[in-house]
Amino acid sequence: MNSNRKAAIKKRRIFLSLCALVLVLAVAVIALSVTVIMNAIKDKDTAKQNNLSSVNEVSSQETSTPEKKGPEMVQRGEYTLNADYSRLLLVNAEYPLPEDYKYGWNLTKIEAKYHNGQLDQIDAGIWPYMRAMVEAAWKDGVDLKVWSPYRSYATQKMLFENRVKKEGGDEVKAATAVARPGTSEHNTGLCADFNMASSKFEGTEMFKWMCENAEDYGFILRYPKDSIDITGVMYESWHWRFVGINCAKEINNLNITLEEYIKLKGLEPQGGIYDNATADVN
Ligand SMILES: [Zn+2]
């Protein structure tokens, strides 16, 4: 009996040991499975995060370095001009140049072959555009020349006083033909009279050419017919003002004057009086 009992105990021990082993193995298998699953989930998350961060990188690249839009450059003959460059300073009887205005602050000399008058200075920023325009007219067989560009205060004063004499002392009437000193665009160097300061200019091929092409170089007919109520100046076919290529086209498309354009755009009439001295052109 004793030996039987011993055998039974031994059997039980073996059975228990086997049970324990199975249990340990089962625990081990479960633990391993859990680890594998956890790792798999972790890998998936990491991959997801990586994807997300790469998406973020792309979008942050897109937002932090937006494509820089440079000025609109246009080719005019051999010259490359900046179509966005503008000079919108308003000068008229209502907006005279301020008393401390630096007359002739940004001038350059016009070579003799481009002008047929006594005066030969122009705003340095607009000269590349005017030169390109005059040369383009020549190419088309049109003898366009600069007659009267920049005028000093003293020259404008002399011209105005002569006109007042001609009008029998009527300053108001004189001012519709010759601007008072300090109220003329010629005092800024941003405009010019071409070939002649005379109503005869309207009948010339130069005038016809300017009407068709001046806007491509940034110039507008500054004092159009029937606009004296707005500009305060009579019709002057010979007087052309630089505003900028894109601005000139817009003004012509809208069929308005510079006074109306500045109002329409909500610009300060003399806000940028010394701004935009030069454009990157060649
Ligand atoms: Zn003029």
Count of spatially separate domains? 2
Tell me about the biggest sheet? 4 strands, antiparallel
Task: Estimate what percentage of residues fall within beta strands.
Answer: 5-15%
Number of strands: 8
**Euclidean distance between termini CA atoms:** 121 Å
- CATH class call of the largest domain: Alpha Beta
General description of the model:
With 282 residues, the protein is of the alpha+beta class. It has helices at 2-64, 127-139, 153-166, 171-177, 205-213, 228-231, 245-254, 258-264; strands spanning 73-76, 79-82, 107-109, 121-123, 146-148, 191-194, 219-223, 236-242. The strands form three sheets. The chain has a four-stranded antiparallel β-sheet with strand order 5-6-8-7. β1 (73-76) and β2 (79-82) form a beta hairpin. α3 (153-166) crosses α4. Bound molecules: zinc ion (ZN). Zinc ion is lined by residues 186, 193, 239.
